Structure formats: structure tokens, C-alpha cells
Amino acid sequence: MVPLKDVNLLAPISKPDKIVAIARNYTGHCEEQHLPPPTEPMFFSKFSSCIIGPYENIVLPEISKRVDWEVELAVVIGKKAKSIRPDQVESYIFGYTIAQDISARDWQKERNGGQFLLGKSMDTFCPIGPSVVTREKIIDVNNLNIKTILNGDVKQNGNTSEMIFKIDFMVSYLSQIFTLHPGDIILTGTPAGVGVHRNPPLFLKVGDVLESEIECIGKMCNKVV
After folding, report:
1. Cβ pair 26, 190 in contact under 8 A
2. Which residues, other chains included, contact 4 with Cβ-Cβ below 8 Å and sequence gap of 6+?
3. DSSP code of residue 176
């Protein structure tokens, strides 16, 4: 057995056909924004070029001063899915991993006409890992503790039970719109505790250490440079 300290773990998936993410899908995240829970899901995308490994560095772009964190449970599609029902979804899921939906809030909210894409897709803005845990290893995906720890302080501490739109709904919904392919990644939302909604707001800076943890899946640790 090779010790973890002697290897460089790469992202478990590097070039998915799609990365699809959902906004405001945790009750606590809606509450911290003083917004009601959505009645219809809001999806956006991230470019696959922003994927990095579970221990690689997050690089702060010069063009943003408001870079934030969002820990998320990520669904990895296992086989081609088109127009499937919610009760069929489980067999189309390969497994689950951890993702950080790193976000340049100024570009997400104030630039690019309010479209999320550029603020979400800057280089290194999607750490994933440390591995993909196959679906049969997760007893209850709707009851997993999920955390972000920044420099040793817990900033997000939620549970996937807070999801407004559940995974079977999300995968089925998306499959009605476009075909999901093996390796596609769906980010399922983030709990309360992101930096932009703190008082005062808190954003990532050079030297920060960002840990992302989900029960039954593991932990990532990314330094900010």
C-alpha cells in the first residue's frame, strides 16, 4: 500500500461532457439570503476546464476580489440518461463525490448581465474528490453531513436532508431537457455559511486553507494561492 502523502491525487473525473449546478437548493442557504425556497429549480453550468484535484491549489484571479466557497455533494452519472422518471434515477447514478463550487461573486452577481457562467467557471474553480464513492456504498444520500472548514474554523455545517429538490428529481428533470452522459457531474447545492452572506462578508485570500468534507465520502483540502 502506498501512503497518501507519497502520491498526488488527481480529480477523479477530469473532462465530463457537462457540469450542471443548482442554485438555492438548501433551506438554510435560502434563509441566509432572506429568500423563500424556490418553487422551480434554477440550474447553471460550469466549464469542465475549471476542475482541479482534491489537494490542488485554488488560484485567485486578478480580476476578482470576492471569491467565495460553496461545498456541494456531486452526483456522477453512470450511463446515458434521457427522459427518465424519478423512480428510475438510481440505476443511472454511478456514485458521489465532493465538489467546491468556487465563485467570483462580483462576476456572478454584478457582471456579465447577471449570468452565472463566468463567475463560476474561472480556472481552478471546481475542486472535486478525493474519490467517487459508488452509489451502493451510501446508505442514505439524503442524510449526509456536509461541511466547509476555512483555516480550521467551520464555516458551513449542514446536511443533505436540507435539499429542496432531491437528487432523483434533479436528474430526472435535467434528463427531460438534454441527454446526460456517463461522467457528467451534477452539483446539488450548498448549505448556509457562504462568505458573501456573512456580516461582514468574508472572501478567500492568499494563504487560506479550505477543507471540504461530506460524511461517507471523505475530505478535500485546497490551499488558496
Report:
1. yes
2. none
3. H
Q: Enter the pTM of the model.
A: 0.96
Parent domain of 43: 11-193+201-223
**Burial (CB count <10 Å: 0-12, 13-18, 19+), residue 157:** middle
CATH assignment at residue 110? 3.90.850.10
Provide the number of structural domains found in the chain: 1
Whether 81 maps to a domain, the answer reads: yes
Q: Is pLDDT at 1 greater than 90 in this prediction?
A: no
Torsion of CA 38, 201, 64, 163, to 10 degrees: -30
Assign 156 to helix, strand or coil.
strand
The grid coordinates of residue 188 equal 446539488
In a domain, 75, yes or no: yes
- 8 A C-beta contact, residue 132 and residue 96: yes
pLDDT in tens, 97-136: 999 999 999 999 989 888 999 999 999 999 999 999 999 9
